[in-house]
Amino acid sequence: MTWPLRALRENFLLKTLALALSVMIWAYVGISEKPPTTSREFMAEVVAINTPPPDLIVRVRPEPVPVEVTGPKPEVDSIPANGIRAVVDLSTARAGTNQLRIVGYRGPREGMSLSFRERRMYAYVDVEPKLRKRMRIELGFVDRPPFGQQFAPPRITPSAVDVVGSKARLDRVARVVAYVSTQAGSVREEIEVHALDKSGVLVEDVEVVPRAALVELTLVDAPATRTLVVSPSLRGRPQAPYVVSDVLVDPSQVTVIGKSEDLVPLTNVPTADVPVDGIRADL
Predict the structure, then answer these.
(1) What is the predicted pLDDT for the residue at 255?
(2) In the chain, which residues fall in CATH 2.170.120.30?
(3) Core-most of 25, 60, 71, 145, by most CB within 10 Å?
(4) Tens digit of pLDDT for each residue in 153-162?
C-alpha cells in the first residue's frame, strides 16, 4: 500500500464526521442569517403605463385592488399601507370594456425581495370614444392699447382649432380663447389657446389641436370723438302773424368721430334745412 493511500485511509471515520459537521455548521449559519418570511394583505393603488389607442379616452377608476405580499419580514413590515402599486397597460384598452388586466405590482422601493399573490386579476376603467369639435378662435385682451390708438382687425393663424375629448367634456366647451398681452405695442407671437365653458372657466381633460395660434395685431391711430349740440337750421318764415316760438331737437346732442384737427373748431352740428315758410301750425 502506497503512502498517500495509507494516509487517506487512516482516521477515515473521524475525517468523515468532521466534514459532515462542517456542512451542518455552514447550513445552520446560513439559515440563522436569513430573516424569516411573512405575508401581509395590501390594497394596491392602480397606476397606468403607456398610452391608450388614439381613438379612445381611458380613465382608471380610483378603486384599489387587494393583493397578498410575501417577503422578508423586515421588508414587508416596512411597507406603508399605501405602498403597493398595481400596474395596468392603457394600450390594451378596447371600446366597450371597463376592465384592464393587471400586468404586475410594484413595491415602494427598488430591490425589495417581494412576491405578489393577486386577489383580483383586473382593474376597473372608464373607456369612451374620443370626439372632435371644430371652433373658431376668439381673442381676449389682458390690457388695452395706448390712449388715442386702437388695434386694426387681428390676423389669427389658424383661425380655428379642434377641441378633442369625451362627449361630456366637449358639451361643456362654449368657446376657445387666445389671451393677448399687448404691452402697449403691436403683437406677433404664438399664443396658447384655452377651451372655456360659458362662465369663462377652463375646461379640464380636453385637448386643443393645435395648442397655439399665431396672433398678429397692429396698432393704428384711433379716430377722435366729440359730443356736440345739434343746431336746427330753419328756412323761410311762418305766415303772419305766426312766429316760431320754440324748436325741440331730439336727440339734442350727437357724437362726432373724426380727426382731432377737424373736430377742434366745431361748436355744434347743424341739421339739414327745415322749411317753415308759410306754416300756420306746429310741425
Answers:
(1) 86
(2) 37-129
(3) 71
(4) 899 999 999 9
